Amino acid sequence: MDLRAREGADRVLLVCVGLLVLIALLVLESALRGVGSGAGFSAHLIRVGLALVVGVVAYHMGHRRLARLSPALFLVALGLSAIATTSGALRAGTRRWLEVGTLTVQPGELAKISLVLLLAHLVARSGHEPLSRRATVGWIAAAGALVLAVAAQPDLGSAAILVGIAVGMGFFSGLSISRQWMLAGTGFAALAVPLIWVFGLRDYQRLRVLSFLNPESDPLGAGYQTLQASIAVGSGGLFGSGWLLGSQTGLQFLPAPHTDFIFAVLAEEFGFVGVVVVLALYLILGLRLLQIAVEAAENKDPAGALLVGGFFLMLHLQGLYNIAMVAGIVPIKGFPLPFMSYGGNSLLIAAAAIGLAASVSRRNFLT
């Protein structure tokens, strides 16, 4: 498969993202029947339009210009995350959202892209491969502060994604980690797990983990989401029940079908074939992002390479967890599926990431 870019905007990125968004519109039309009205679908269409504008602006700004703004963006994300900890809107026991009139901001989503941009900026400023010691210390301190601020909301899912981005981009940047430090980190993590379980998790979070291990123990309570998602996925069969004909979705048995469990709606109504198509689109998108990163590294653009590598981690770690959650492989966590779930914050951030990745691709082509 030839994933190389042609002159102009990267067609592979545009086609993959465009098809994911179009498929999402079909699935959301069904998912919103029980949880919203036509106005909800119209609102999502407006968000898709805004996402297109954001992606185009990011594409024309270019990653180098935006990377210079990354320290300011990072401070904004850190500040909003700290404010949300005490003043955010309380939903399902967490304060992940800031509400300003009709506008809702989720600092955890902004934190992800700001972290990616910051490391790319540090690499550009450092001019060293691997990353200089001073830049490494600054990166670890910045990542740690952001992770703690998001985890305090508490939004442990987004905090875990931030850790994954930080670790992955650290290796991408050539961060040198000795065997002793790796062993020490592993030992610390092993000791931290029981402490986090006892002191770091709230009762509902521990209940989620226990219900994941045995959802049948509380089928109408903590295990309800896992069981209903499994029923929806299993009932889809090869070709699905048909668009707008899913019983789990139409009868409102499936919780959050338009956000966290939109993949279950896809599986129920479009079956195994629909699932394979969507997974193939995510796979091609990921391969193209990695190829752009490699091309940027070959063209002596380490900041661009690291930026696109970070976007790959940001989008695909979250997407992989969402799909694994619907499949019952990991505990339930409030992760939107990139480009498909209902809502504006995740869609706008993902659009900005793709726009910047396309700008790196264009620079690779022109070099």
Report what the structure shows:
The protein is mainly α. The chain has one domain (8-366). The protein has helices at residues 11-31, 38-61, 63-68, 70-87, 107-126, 133-151, 156-172, 179-200, 203-213, 224-235, 247-250, 262-298, 302-326, 345-366; strands at 89-91, 94-100, 103-105. β2 and β3 form a beta hairpin. It starts with 10 loop residues before the first helix and ends with a helix.
Could you give the topology of this structure?
Elements: H1 11-31, H2 38-61, H3 63-68, H4 70-87, E1 89-91, E2 94-100, E3 103-105, H5 107-126, H6 133-151, H7 156-172, H8 179-200, H9 203-213, H10 224-235, H11 247-250, H12 262-298, H13 302-326, H14 345-366
Antiparallel strand pairs: 1-2, 2-3
Helix pairs in contact: 1-12, 2-14, 4-5, 4-6, 5-6, 5-7, 5-13, 6-7, 7-13, 10-12, 12-13, 12-14, 13-14
| Residues in β-strands, percent | under 5%
Pattern of helices and strands: HHHHEEEHHHHHHHHHH
Average pLDDT score? 81
Q: How many alpha or pi helices?
A: 14
Helical residues, percent: over 70%
Distance between the termini: 23 Å
**Strand count:** 3
What would you call the quaternary organization? single chain
Please list the strands of the largest sheet in the order they lie side by side: 1-2-3
Kindly name the structural category: mainly alpha
Q: Specify the overall morphology.
A: globular
Number of domains: 1
Radius of gyration: 21 Å
**What low-confidence regions span 5 or more consecutive residues with pLDDT below 50?**
178-184
Largest sheet composition: 3 strands, antiparallel
